[in-house]
Amino acid sequence: MKKVLFITFYWPPSGKASLHWPMKIIKHLPKFGWQPIVLTVKEDTFSAKDESLLSEVDPNLEVIKTDYFDPFIYYRKFLGKSKYEPLIASETISTSNKSLKHKITVWIRMNLFVPDARVGWNRIAIKETKKYLKKNPVDAIVSVGPPHSSHLIGKKLGRLFNLPHFPVLIDPWIDISYYRDFKRNPLTLSLDKYFEKSIMKSASKVIFVTESMKNDFIVRYNWLRNKSDVLYWGYNEEDFEGLQPKLKNDYEILLHAGNIFDYQNPINFWSTIKKEIDKGRKLRIKFIGTVSPGIKNSIEQNGLTSYTEYSGFLPYKNVLVEMLSADYLLVCATEKRHVPGKLFEYLRTGKPIIAFGDDNEEVKNIIGEANAGYLYSYKNNADDFFEKAKQLISNTNVIKKYDRLTVAEKMSNILLK
Description:
Layout: E1 2-7, H1 20-28, E2 34-41, E3 62-66, H2 72-79, H3 89-92, H4 100-111, H5 122-135, E4 140-145, H6 149-161, E5 165-169, H7 186-202, E6 206-208, H8 211-220, E7 228-230, H9 237-240, E8 252-257, H10 269-278, E9 283-288, H11 293-301, E10 308-312, H12 316-325, E11 328-332, H13 342-349, E12 353-356, H14 361-369, E13 373-376, H15 385-388, H16 396-399, H17 404-415
Parallel strand pairs: 1-2, 1-4, 2-3, 4-5, 5-6, 6-7, 8-9, 8-11, 9-10, 11-12, 12-13
């Protein structure tokens, strides 16, 4: 059986949503002739922990865990937080927080850490993994980003050991969505562009999780056309086995699962919800994960606070149960190249999906092909959604192609090229 080294900063018991793709691909790859080895960190101090995910990891899987320089230790100290106080992703880069300390921390993050705040892992990871690979050769290297600094680790190890390197880009790089509201100095941006281009050039093949992101990179680097592929985020059918929705309430639930940021605010839709409630509709909003100050402010301004539940972080299986128990599922794309990972789990539930995203043809096509929901622009109040939702009957045959077992098989074929 061939061996492949997966470099992923996030790994159980981290509860980071972006670890689910590598975790499930790694789980399924041995069925297709590849034995993974994982390189990760000893502890992710930023993300909430989900201990339940540890049971998803094969006890025989070899996992290399290393130390790393963690700037968020100093971030907490600067803001007067305790060492283990949870950090909220949507608040760390909030545009509505005008305090001087917040502005300073954002400037440091955007300008002094290139390509990202996890770059302090690289030197230690390379040093430790070099020792491992000298005694335990592998056939390929896969790096998963963000953090995109992990791709630099993959590139370096690939060159040292003459191994093919396959970077997986879950999000864009130099123009990732949360950069757009903050200014980066020209030197930082120039260095980041250099890193991005160097990874694209040296990679054996670049894997994107959306077609639109792939096409955007090809515009910048036309030679990527012949060495790039798309593997959608997908969902894991095994995770849904045995799950049952909770007992039905006497009201409907509109659910958003995962972090939601200021720039994902469907600002006019909240007024539509309030109008529906005022007309007698028994409707509640539920958020799972972190919710930005801007979103909470919109909820309050529209008189929806008493109709809204903020559940915070939940273990993954609990989140799936909440999805199955909801009546409507809300998803907000950050930009036109973004297909949110949760969309595929939403599709699997068969519940009506309301999506917001400006010029996001890919999300529109995915939910349209599956007859699963409707996409609106962020300025649209979507006042016809609840009536149109009655017509939705999801096409399960279309949805099945996003099962991660199928995605893993495609991954195994890419690694052979």
